[in-house]
Amino acid sequence: MAANDQEAIDRTALQLLKLSEPWKVVAMYGEMGSGKTTLVKALCKHLGVSMVVSSPTFTIINQYSDQQGTPVYHMDLYRLENPHDALQLGLDEYFSRECWCFIEWPEKIPGFLPQNCVSLSIELDPDHLDRKLTLVLP
User: Fold this and answer.
1) Most buried in the list 92, 95, 127, 134, measured by CB within 10 Å?
2) Are 122 and 95 in contact (CB under 8 A)?
3) Domain covering 6-136, topology
């Protein structure tokens, strides 16, 4: 996926939604600046979220609503100091709902992700012009 090609990002988002539909929890792995938040913005757009989608780096969890009013959760776990902080946030409750959950920095909570979680890895090429996406379905 080209870094600044919005059409490619939109196609990727639509394909990811289609493939992930049965599970709805998507753990997104990738280094800082790899495009995780950009992809979440495109995913939310295609779900009919009309709110401004931004990184929840400081709030940790942003909640949006899709076109039917169903919650869509965007999590950025970068600032978690301890995996057990996830319990205090009630992440297990979010994961048990029938709602989309997009999780940035899931490696911060090893062992707390649901078994039916979709895994998406985003790798930057050395020039930061292209991205390689690897999707692993449960």
Assistant:
1) 95
2) no
3) Rossmann fold (3.40.50)
Question: Which residue in this structure is represented by tokens 């078994």?
Answer: 115
Give 52's contacts (C-beta < 8 A, 6+ positions apart): none
- Give the pLDDT of residue 1: 57
Query: Which residues have C-beta within 8 Å of that of residue 132, sequence separation ≥ 6?
Result: 1, 122, 123, 125
Residues belonging to the chain: 138
Domain boundaries, the chain: 6-136
